[in-house]
Design brief:
The complex is a heterodimer of chains A (278) and B (632). With 278 residues, chain A is mainly α. In chain A, 59% of the residues lie in helices and 3% in strands. In chain A, the strands form two sheets. Chain A has a two-stranded antiparallel sheet. In chain B, strand 3 and strand 4 form a beta hairpin. The longest helix of chain B has 35 residues. The chains are: A mainly alpha (278), B mainly alpha (632).
Amino acid sequence: MNLAKTWWRIIRWKLAASIVAAVLLWIGSGQLGFPLIFQWMFVAYAFLGFLVFVVLDAPPLPELTGWKAGVGIVLFYLACSVVYVTAGMRLPQFSSETEVAGIERKTAKYRQDPAVTESLVKKTRDLSAKADEILAKLEKLEASGQKLDLEGIEIASLPSESIPSRDLSGMGLVERGKLVYQDHECYNCHKIGGKGGKKRGPELDNIGNLATGEQLKKKIFDPKAWHAEGYEKRKKDKMPDKYPDVMSDEELEALVTYLLTLKNTAVKTPKPVFPSGS
Amino acid sequence: MTARGRGTHASKGFVLLLLAGLCLLGMVPPALGQMTEILRPSEFPYLGNRVAVWVVAQLHILFAAFILGAPVFVVISEWLGVRQNDPRYDRLAKEVTKVTAILYSMTALTGGFFVLVLVVLYPNLTAWLFNHFFPIMAITYPLLFIAETIVLYLYWYTWDTLKGEKKGRHLAIGVLLNLIGIVTLFVIDAPTAFMNTPVKATEELGMSLRDYVETTATFWDKVNNFSWMPLNFHRLVGNITFGGFITGLIAAYMYMGSKTEEEKAYYDWMGFVGNFIGIGALLFLPLAGYVYGSEFYDYDASIGPYMMGDQLSMYFEMQGGMVGLIFLASAYYIWLSLKRIEIQDYSATVTKRLVAGVLSILVPGLGQFYNRQWVKGLAFLATQAAVLRAIFYIVAPHWEEGLGLLLLLFLFPIAIQIASSSHALRYGQAEAPAGGFLVLPVRLFAALLLGLEKLCLKRREGVIKLAFVVLLFGNAIWMTPHAFVGSVSALTDETYEELSLPGEWDFLALMPAKNSAAASMVLMILLSFILYTRAIRRGRIQWGKIDFSSQFALIFLAFSAIWTMGLMGVVRSSLRKYFHIYDLVPDLSPDSFTPTLADASILITILTVVFFGIVSLAIWLAIGTAKDKVRG
């Protein structure tokens, strides 16, 4: 009974203050235009504050010794584990289906056609054998002092499809382009329709009116080719130059086709600025 | 067989295992270098290759973080013991070293396990890395590891022989141990950092990344890549933080198992010191993390946004929550520590100090809210007076308080300004609001401490509660995301308005506001600690009389620190989306998926519990069995 009274004395004004704070935060944040989820976040903080101040004024914990201390530690670990796992599960998750679909598109060529991998492995073995042959010839020539004669030795080359295209057959070019945009995460820097990352790159809503297909292709594969108006002084956050290595020609074609459909004049997409002389 | 005999045999066994592991490691690079065929990797059952590598790597890193971080403060503690003639410091150093010696073996074993898993699951990548970092992988790193083993065991086994006049030699061995440890960390960080930010050619050279790395880049170029030094700084600070919290964990266990008041008093003190080290180093971690993270943004515009805005964004939301809880737990421990101090001297402070203190703190703060020139002028003068006053404290007996005040008064506004200006420079925008609303409560708190010391000491519990308010507020700002989605690509026209911050409040999600929040939280802990040291100077501390819940606070700090390291480990692994080495070695296997935060949380928790189990066993072996023997 005394313990209950003690706890009630500790909790009562703090609970009242937390409820008042929560109500004020709810109303205030709503008036200021915060969405519902942020209002709930602020309310949650009010009650976190309540918990913190209750713990601060809580009566001293009785000492645990021997096996009780051990049990206490194990239970404490269990409680922390449950809290952290629950928090990890309750926070918003990205769609694992979207993730799996993206992985499948990127790896489709290897999975659907293992013969390509086998062919690459065979060609590498052949190249290795050819290299050994050339080395042996070089050693003989060194010994005899003669010139190198490579006639008769065929040097194989890697297949031209070194960047495999993803199997996007059965899909319109614009739809394919949207997928390419998603898969290469262009949204991390660019916005379309107000959605996307913060202003690292220009908004693309009107790019279809401002650049041609060839100009866009050049920009994606060689970001230094031209820049957007207002972005000339950017020393950091420059567009990556890795896309020739990770994007196939077919993907590039699809992406550019999609970008050329973006013709929303209400959005101020900056104009391309080409280097003088180009 | 005595406990010492058992320990000696166990140590020898571990050394033999370690040497066997090193021999095996030494065989790997030449073997891989001679292979000319493409190796087919194996498939790790159930977990998949990437997750398997992450699990083993994370275990290794957790042990390595402790054995590299602990010796830093162990040597300092030993030195303090000599300087202050306080045997507690030497005992702390010795006990932590004993645990370090056992966990060192685990580090070596998990390291060998890590290499074997890499070779079996990713033979081609491992061969690539070994070839490009041959001097490190095959020569430097193994030699450093052998050197560290020798020096660590030398340090431990000469503890009782090199004492008295020979203590200096023992300290020198400790310093050598730390130097080798730091070099080892820096050396192995090079290939790790290279995987994320391989060295690029300058614009003048105009070479592609691949061509530059394969034909032109020197070995030093590859080592000294973009994120190498930031990673070194981040890991060094993190290791010391981690070591401090594990020391607190050791103290908590031993406090709970103490049978005498003397033992309880000692382990109470040890817990305080461990927490002090952990928190002291933790205060620099947000800066270290910010510098490291910003390096990714500068290196390639696609990595940073993927980390903070795309699929890994909620991982950082979770990290924000974890760090907030760690700060709250630290403040709670300081709160409990304050409660056991009996203050006897409440003599009044000098009036001039009161006026100068209040003015020098409040006026610069107020100046930020007014555009009137005369206020700004006064604010400038007051700031200079405050700096001079802080310097006065530095040359006065309590130099550490002066240093803390200098950091507060001088660097905090500069840090806020830099955060705000750098953001503007980067994006060519007007200066973003930097969260100036946090400046005033921090300054108010400092003003109270400086000018109203007597009141603060008498009402110290109330003053610390102010700190908690700022901590909660700061953490709320820090955790406020731009949008409550797992990935920015998930925002649709319908959900955008419902899940994102309104435009005029978007600054809450920007770095200046986050930096302000982090700086405020850091400074509140610093100020709380200053209040604590003032209380000690005027009173008497009763070691062994702390509230028992403080021990759970210490355990919580260690658990949360380990969990956060695991969380960041998943980020480290998942950051390499579709690549092993950025733009050089792709990974287009199904294993290159990013786990959801839900799945990752379960795996991180299991790993944390496993690590805790092993560390708890090591503590019992190292210290618990020795005490049982003494009592028996």
